[in-house]
Design brief:
2 copies of one chain form a homodimer. Chain A is mainly alpha-helical. Chain A contains 10 helices and no strands. The first copy, chain A, is elongated and about 60 Å long. Chain A binds a DNA duplex through residues 2-4, 7, 28-30, 38-42, 44-46, 49-50.
DNA sequence: CCTAAAATATACCGATTGGTATTTTAACAT
DNA sequence: ATGTTAAAATACCAATCGGTATATTTTAGG
């Protein structure tokens, strides 16, 4: 890893939580230099513009979240338990212990969908990948007879994502973890009902 | 209504969709003057600062949405049908025909929760009111024997809000109304299962 | 119709925005 | 150790930011 690559990573690591909290328009170059301790010249020596930093920051935030989920999923045996890993994972970045500022998928989707086509494209891809991953898991569960054959994999995937992201919005806004527990209890019942 | 009141309303009407789409930091005073055709002097003659415009714009967007919901709810007889009005209402501002930019509750919650305490306070209040309204509806349904007595009204309220808001995020981002239908079909089944 | 007050426009302010050209410093291979 | 290249800092840019003081226009009451 060259010096430039190290610096690039350093900038992304330090600014990723800021973009996640303040959004694209709300994050200034001053925020970026303050968080890194670097000067504007150094930032622009490693990135063409603010957009490139924001896009890299989203990739970083997304990878951070999805790698945690993948790791937790691989620890689970049954399909149902795999579908329920979000219950424990997401709690961590509602209280800010992981991915400061909440879920980057939700934040960036709302931030970018009407304002930043490039960023929107990245989130769109992330959501569709997420949906397909859950859907395939459901298909596997149906093949294994763990889940009923009349389940619609895509519908289940979308419903889970909606409950998780909606739940994060509510819990983060209200700063009430009890709300998260109640919503996730509903999700549990929903998944239990699949087979 | 005085001239100033008219102008105030006019400014709010014209800028509300902009704040809903671009967020607080993303909406500039230039956006505001461009949307209204007024000058900066006129804006600041009617509002103390940008914050006041943003707060008034949120109130406007919120009232716009909630009055539509209230109207639709009053047309429904059963509790279950009342709980399902979101299915038809929210479709309208996913495609932009109402409240351009999507749901103001969701947008403002994500936009403001880490950045704008005053705005956050308003959304927080709106979400708690919404939750209480649905919970009371469920209590009524239990009293009427339409819903089972073992239902947790607060949990049901939170679950419905999460599914609706999560569903809006997904459908708006992907611009896919079929996704909305699938998620709302899950909501329908959920509400049907309440009694 | 005239006048006082209210409302809007004009012209300006310092600070900050994203971005760049240039200089200085640090890294690294020979 | 030195020369070369890469990386970071400095100093600057025009444009835009939110906001204000003042001038002009509009409104409304007598």
């Amino acid at each position: 890893m060259t010096k430039a690559e190290k610096t690039r990573n350093f900038i992304v690591e330090k600014t990723a939580p800021i973009f996640n909290m303040k959004g694209y328009a709300g994050t200034s170059l001053n925020d970026i230099t303050a968080a890194t301790g670097l000067t504007k010249g150094s930032i622009y020596g490693n990135f063409a513009n603010k957009d490139e930093v924001a896009l890299a920051a989203f990739d970083y935030n997304l990878k951070n979240v999805s790698s945690r989920i993948d790791a937790e999923m691989s620890r689970q045996d049954s399909i149902k338990d795999k579908l329920l890993v979000y219950i424990n994972i997401y709690q961590k970045f509602i209280d800010g212990s992981a991915s400061e500022g909440g879920c980057p998928v939700l934040n960036t989707a709302i931030d970018a969908d009407d304002t930043h086509p490039e960023l929107r494209g990245k989130v769109l891809k992330a959501v569709l990948n997420w949906k397909n991953k859950i859907a395939k898991l459901v298909e596997l569960g149906i093949a294994n007879k763990e889940l009923n054959a009349d389940n619609n994999p895509e519908q289940i995937a979308l419903t889970i994502i909606a409950m998780v992201e909606g739940g994060i919005m509510i819990s983060k806004l209200t700063a009430n973890t009890e709300y998260w527990s109640l919503i996730m209890d509903s999700l549990k019942k929903y998944v239990d009902g699949l087979g």
